[in-house]
Write a structure and sequence with these properties.
The chain is an alpha/beta fold and 309 residues long. 32% of the residues lie in helices and 26% in strands. The chain is built from eleven helices and 14 strands. A hairpin with a 5-residue loop joins strand 1 and strand 2. Helix 3 crosses helix 4 and helix 4 crosses helix 5. The N and C termini lie far apart (51 Å).
Length: 309
Protein backbone atom coordinates (compact mmCIF):
# COMPACT_ATOMS: atom_id res chain seq x y z
CA UNK A 1 0.00 0.00 0.00
CA UNK A 2 1.62 3.25 -1.16
CA UNK A 3 1.29 6.46 0.79
CA UNK A 4 0.65 9.88 -0.65
CA UNK A 5 3.80 12.03 -0.85
CA UNK A 6 3.84 14.94 1.57
CA UNK A 7 3.59 18.25 -0.28
CA UNK A 8 6.53 20.59 0.24
CA UNK A 9 5.36 23.94 1.66
CA UNK A 10 5.65 26.81 -0.79
CA UNK A 11 8.24 29.42 0.17
CA UNK A 12 6.72 32.87 -0.28
CA UNK A 13 9.65 34.80 1.19
CA UNK A 14 13.17 33.46 0.90
CA UNK A 15 16.57 35.03 1.52
CA UNK A 16 19.96 33.46 0.92
CA UNK A 17 23.14 34.88 2.48
CA UNK A 18 21.45 38.29 2.59
CA UNK A 19 23.88 40.99 3.72
CA UNK A 20 23.64 44.76 4.03
CA UNK A 21 26.72 46.86 4.79
CA UNK A 22 26.81 50.63 5.02
CA UNK A 23 29.61 52.97 3.98
CA UNK A 24 30.48 53.68 7.62
CA UNK A 25 31.32 50.01 8.14
CA UNK A 26 28.13 49.07 9.99
CA UNK A 27 26.80 45.63 9.05
CA UNK A 28 23.02 45.75 9.58
CA UNK A 29 22.23 42.32 8.13
CA UNK A 30 24.72 39.50 7.66
CA UNK A 31 24.37 36.14 5.89
CA UNK A 32 20.63 36.01 6.62
CA UNK A 33 18.63 32.96 5.50
CA UNK A 34 14.87 33.30 6.01
CA UNK A 35 12.15 30.86 4.94
CA UNK A 36 8.55 32.05 5.18
CA UNK A 37 5.85 29.74 3.83
CA UNK A 38 2.48 30.39 2.27
CA UNK A 39 -0.42 30.73 4.69
CA UNK A 40 1.56 31.28 7.88
CA UNK A 41 1.91 34.16 10.30
CA UNK A 42 5.66 34.51 10.73
CA UNK A 43 7.04 36.45 13.69
CA UNK A 44 10.35 38.25 13.19
CA UNK A 45 12.00 38.90 16.55
CA UNK A 46 15.18 40.62 17.64
CA UNK A 47 16.57 43.28 19.99
CA UNK A 48 16.56 46.91 18.92
CA UNK A 49 19.19 47.39 16.22
CA UNK A 50 19.28 43.69 15.34
CA UNK A 51 18.42 44.35 11.68
CA UNK A 52 14.67 43.66 11.55
CA UNK A 53 13.59 46.87 9.83
CA UNK A 54 16.58 46.78 7.45
CA UNK A 55 15.56 43.27 6.41
CA UNK A 56 11.96 44.31 5.80
CA UNK A 57 13.12 47.31 3.74
CA UNK A 58 15.22 44.98 1.59
CA UNK A 59 12.24 42.65 1.09
CA UNK A 60 10.16 45.63 -0.07
CA UNK A 61 12.85 46.88 -2.44
CA UNK A 62 13.36 50.12 -0.48
CA UNK A 63 17.09 49.41 -0.09
CA UNK A 64 19.37 47.01 -1.90
CA UNK A 65 21.43 44.27 -0.28
CA UNK A 66 25.20 44.41 -0.46
CA UNK A 67 25.38 40.66 -1.01
CA UNK A 68 23.06 37.69 -1.26
CA UNK A 69 19.61 37.33 -2.76
CA UNK A 70 15.94 37.45 -1.86
CA UNK A 71 12.63 36.58 -3.44
CA UNK A 72 9.20 37.77 -2.32
CA UNK A 73 6.08 36.27 -3.87
CA UNK A 74 8.26 34.59 -6.48
CA UNK A 75 10.01 37.74 -7.70
CA UNK A 76 12.88 40.10 -6.93
CA UNK A 77 12.09 42.59 -4.14
CA UNK A 78 11.00 45.95 -5.52
CA UNK A 79 10.09 44.58 -8.94
CA UNK A 80 6.56 45.19 -10.28
CA UNK A 81 5.89 41.44 -10.16
CA UNK A 82 6.70 41.38 -6.44
CA UNK A 83 5.12 44.68 -5.40
CA UNK A 84 1.75 43.89 -6.96
CA UNK A 85 1.43 40.94 -4.56
CA UNK A 86 2.60 42.73 -1.38
CA UNK A 87 0.94 45.01 1.15
CA UNK A 88 3.08 46.58 3.86
CA UNK A 89 3.36 48.91 6.82
CA UNK A 90 6.91 49.93 7.69
CA UNK A 91 7.05 52.27 10.69
CA UNK A 92 4.10 54.65 11.24
CA UNK A 93 1.54 54.87 8.40
CA UNK A 94 1.00 58.42 7.08
CA UNK A 95 -2.26 59.81 5.71
CA UNK A 96 -3.79 63.19 4.89
CA UNK A 97 -5.16 64.39 8.24
CA UNK A 98 -7.92 66.58 6.78
CA UNK A 99 -9.42 63.73 4.69
CA UNK A 100 -11.65 60.96 5.94
CA UNK A 101 -10.39 57.42 6.19
CA UNK A 102 -12.51 56.53 3.17
CA UNK A 103 -11.16 59.38 1.05
CA UNK A 104 -7.58 58.55 1.98
CA UNK A 105 -8.15 55.00 0.76
CA UNK A 106 -9.91 56.26 -2.37
CA UNK A 107 -6.83 58.27 -3.37
CA UNK A 108 -4.52 55.38 -2.62
CA UNK A 109 -6.71 52.97 -4.59
CA UNK A 110 -6.47 55.28 -7.60
CA UNK A 111 -2.71 55.50 -7.24
CA UNK A 112 -2.16 51.73 -6.98
CA UNK A 113 -4.87 50.87 -9.55
CA UNK A 114 -6.97 48.94 -7.04
CA UNK A 115 -10.69 48.61 -7.85
CA UNK A 116 -12.91 51.09 -5.97
CA UNK A 117 -15.06 48.31 -4.55
CA UNK A 118 -12.05 47.13 -2.54
CA UNK A 119 -12.35 50.20 -0.28
CA UNK A 120 -15.54 49.06 1.44
CA UNK A 121 -14.20 45.50 1.62
CA UNK A 122 -10.97 46.41 3.41
CA UNK A 123 -12.70 48.86 5.75
CA UNK A 124 -15.00 46.05 6.82
CA UNK A 125 -12.08 43.64 7.12
CA UNK A 126 -10.30 45.92 9.63
CA UNK A 127 -13.62 46.82 11.35
CA UNK A 128 -13.38 50.53 10.53
CA UNK A 129 -16.59 50.95 8.53
CA UNK A 130 -18.49 52.93 11.23
CA UNK A 131 -15.75 55.61 11.27
CA UNK A 132 -14.87 55.54 7.58
CA UNK A 133 -16.28 59.02 6.85
CA UNK A 134 -14.59 60.70 9.82
CA UNK A 135 -11.41 62.70 9.30
CA UNK A 136 -8.17 60.87 9.86
CA UNK A 137 -7.00 63.44 12.42
CA UNK A 138 -9.85 62.38 14.74
CA UNK A 139 -8.74 58.74 14.78
CA UNK A 140 -7.18 57.05 17.80
CA UNK A 141 -3.77 55.38 17.44
CA UNK A 142 -5.44 51.99 17.03
CA UNK A 143 -7.75 53.29 14.31
CA UNK A 144 -4.80 54.86 12.48
CA UNK A 145 -3.00 51.52 12.54
CA UNK A 146 -6.13 49.79 11.26
CA UNK A 147 -6.40 52.26 8.40
CA UNK A 148 -2.78 51.51 7.59
CA UNK A 149 -3.61 47.82 7.36
CA UNK A 150 -6.65 48.63 5.22
CA UNK A 151 -4.38 50.55 2.84
CA UNK A 152 -2.00 47.59 2.70
CA UNK A 153 -4.91 45.30 1.82
CA UNK A 154 -6.23 47.39 -1.07
CA UNK A 155 -4.49 45.26 -3.70
CA UNK A 156 -5.69 42.07 -1.97
CA UNK A 157 -2.05 41.02 -1.51
CA UNK A 158 -0.71 37.52 -1.14
CA UNK A 159 1.90 38.77 1.33
CA UNK A 160 1.42 41.26 4.16
CA UNK A 161 4.53 42.74 5.82
CA UNK A 162 4.00 44.61 9.09
CA UNK A 163 6.79 46.35 11.00
CA UNK A 164 6.02 46.76 14.73
CA UNK A 165 2.24 47.13 14.10
CA UNK A 166 1.24 47.37 17.77
CA UNK A 167 3.61 50.23 18.67
CA UNK A 168 1.84 52.87 20.75
CA UNK A 169 -1.35 50.88 21.31
CA UNK A 170 -2.97 50.40 24.70
CA UNK A 171 -3.61 46.83 25.98
CA UNK A 172 -7.09 46.66 24.46
CA UNK A 173 -5.79 48.00 21.16
CA UNK A 174 -3.02 45.40 21.14
CA UNK A 175 -5.51 42.61 21.81
CA UNK A 176 -7.77 43.83 19.00
CA UNK A 177 -4.85 44.15 16.60
CA UNK A 178 -3.55 40.71 17.50
CA UNK A 179 -6.94 39.23 16.66
CA UNK A 180 -6.95 41.15 13.37
CA UNK A 181 -3.54 39.80 12.36
CA UNK A 182 -4.62 36.22 13.11
CA UNK A 183 -7.70 36.74 10.90
CA UNK A 184 -5.61 38.26 8.11
CA UNK A 185 -3.27 35.27 8.17
CA UNK A 186 -5.99 32.74 7.47
CA UNK A 187 -6.17 30.96 4.13
CA UNK A 188 -3.37 31.41 1.60
CA UNK A 189 -2.32 34.90 2.68
CA UNK A 190 1.09 35.08 4.35
CA UNK A 191 1.84 37.60 7.10
CA UNK A 192 5.36 38.58 8.15
CA UNK A 193 5.26 40.65 11.32
CA UNK A 194 8.11 42.09 13.37
CA UNK A 195 7.33 42.90 16.97
CA UNK A 196 8.99 43.89 20.23
CA UNK A 197 6.30 42.14 22.29
CA UNK A 198 7.08 38.49 22.90
CA UNK A 199 3.65 37.73 24.35
CA UNK A 200 1.95 39.11 21.26
CA UNK A 201 4.09 37.03 18.92
CA UNK A 202 3.52 33.91 21.00
CA UNK A 203 -0.25 34.24 20.65
CA UNK A 204 -0.53 35.09 16.96
CA UNK A 205 2.38 33.55 15.05
CA UNK A 206 2.71 30.14 13.42
CA UNK A 207 6.51 30.23 13.27
CA UNK A 208 9.18 32.69 14.33
CA UNK A 209 12.67 33.73 13.38
CA UNK A 210 15.07 35.32 15.87
CA UNK A 211 17.72 37.74 14.61
CA UNK A 212 20.75 38.96 16.58
CA UNK A 213 23.33 41.41 15.27
CA UNK A 214 22.03 40.91 11.74
CA UNK A 215 22.22 37.12 11.85
CA UNK A 216 19.40 34.60 12.13
CA UNK A 217 20.08 32.60 15.29
CA UNK A 218 16.93 30.44 15.30
CA UNK A 219 13.89 29.67 13.17
CA UNK A 220 10.96 27.32 13.73
CA UNK A 221 7.68 26.89 15.55
CA UNK A 222 7.50 28.14 19.13
CA UNK A 223 7.26 24.53 20.32
CA UNK A 224 10.41 23.62 18.39
CA UNK A 225 12.36 26.53 19.83
CA UNK A 226 11.20 25.83 23.37
CA UNK A 227 12.38 22.24 23.10
CA UNK A 228 11.28 19.46 25.41
CA UNK A 229 9.59 20.40 28.64
CA UNK A 230 11.06 19.69 32.07
CA UNK A 231 9.25 17.17 34.25
CA UNK A 232 10.02 17.34 37.96
CA UNK A 233 9.48 14.06 39.84
CA UNK A 234 9.48 13.63 43.62
CA UNK A 235 9.35 9.96 44.54
CA UNK A 236 10.55 7.49 47.15
CA UNK A 237 12.75 5.55 47.22
CA UNK A 238 14.78 7.84 44.95
CA UNK A 239 17.23 5.19 43.73
CA UNK A 240 14.40 2.88 42.68
CA UNK A 241 12.58 5.76 40.93
CA UNK A 242 15.71 6.70 39.00
CA UNK A 243 16.21 3.09 37.94
CA UNK A 244 12.64 2.90 36.61
CA UNK A 245 12.95 6.19 34.77
CA UNK A 246 16.19 5.21 33.07
CA UNK A 247 15.84 1.45 32.55
CA UNK A 248 12.11 1.00 31.91
CA UNK A 249 11.14 4.37 30.44
CA UNK A 250 14.36 5.20 28.60
CA UNK A 251 14.70 8.63 30.19
CA UNK A 252 18.10 10.18 29.55
CA UNK A 253 19.97 12.86 31.48
CA UNK A 254 17.92 12.50 34.66
CA UNK A 255 19.25 15.38 36.77
CA UNK A 256 19.08 16.03 40.48
CA UNK A 257 16.58 18.78 41.30
CA UNK A 258 15.99 20.81 44.46
CA UNK A 259 14.74 19.08 47.60
CA UNK A 260 15.58 15.56 46.48
CA UNK A 261 13.58 15.74 43.24
CA UNK A 262 14.61 14.51 39.80
CA UNK A 263 14.30 16.58 36.65
CA UNK A 264 14.11 15.14 33.15
CA UNK A 265 13.31 16.44 29.68
CA UNK A 266 10.37 14.57 28.25
CA UNK A 267 7.29 14.88 26.07
CA UNK A 268 4.55 15.93 28.49
CA UNK A 269 2.18 13.42 26.84
CA UNK A 270 4.18 10.73 28.66
CA UNK A 271 3.55 12.13 32.16
CA UNK A 272 0.67 9.73 32.87
CA UNK A 273 2.70 6.77 31.59
CA UNK A 274 5.63 7.76 33.83
CA UNK A 275 3.42 8.03 36.89
CA UNK A 276 1.75 4.65 36.22
CA UNK A 277 5.08 2.89 35.68
CA UNK A 278 6.54 4.28 38.90
CA UNK A 279 3.48 3.18 40.89
CA UNK A 280 3.64 -0.33 39.37
CA UNK A 281 7.26 -0.51 40.58
CA UNK A 282 6.13 0.24 44.15
CA UNK A 283 7.55 3.76 44.03
CA UNK A 284 5.58 6.34 45.99
CA UNK A 285 5.09 9.42 43.79
CA UNK A 286 4.38 12.61 45.77
CA UNK A 287 4.96 15.17 43.03
CA UNK A 288 4.83 15.22 39.24
CA UNK A 289 5.15 18.74 37.87
CA UNK A 290 5.84 20.03 34.38
CA UNK A 291 7.44 23.31 33.35
CA UNK A 292 8.04 24.73 29.90
CA UNK A 293 10.50 27.39 28.86
CA UNK A 294 8.72 30.57 27.92
CA UNK A 295 9.36 32.33 24.64
CA UNK A 296 11.10 35.02 26.68
CA UNK A 297 13.50 32.43 28.13
CA UNK A 298 14.31 31.21 24.62
CA UNK A 299 14.75 34.74 23.31
CA UNK A 300 17.10 35.81 26.10
CA UNK A 301 19.14 32.65 25.66
CA UNK A 302 19.45 33.14 21.90
CA UNK A 303 20.19 36.86 21.89
CA UNK A 304 22.11 37.27 25.12
CA UNK A 305 19.97 40.27 26.09
CA UNK A 306 18.82 40.93 29.61
CA UNK A 307 15.31 42.16 28.86
CA UNK A 308 12.98 43.66 26.33
CA UNK A 309 13.44 43.94 22.61
Amino acid sequence: MSSEPVATPERVIETRSLTRRYDNGVVAVEDLNLNVYRGEVYGFLGPNGAGKTTTLRILLGLIRPSEGSATVAGATPGSPASLEKIGAIVETPAFWPYLSGYDNLRLLATYCHAPAERIDTVLQEVELTPRARDKFKTYSMGMKQRLGVAAALLKNPEVLILDEPTNGLDPQGMADFRRLIVQLGQGDRTVLVSSHLLGEVEQMCTRIGVIRKGRLVAEGTIEELRGAANLTVRASPVDRAREVLEARLGAENVADGPGGTMVLKVDLDRAAEINAELVRADVAVSELRSSERSLEDVFLELTGTEGGL
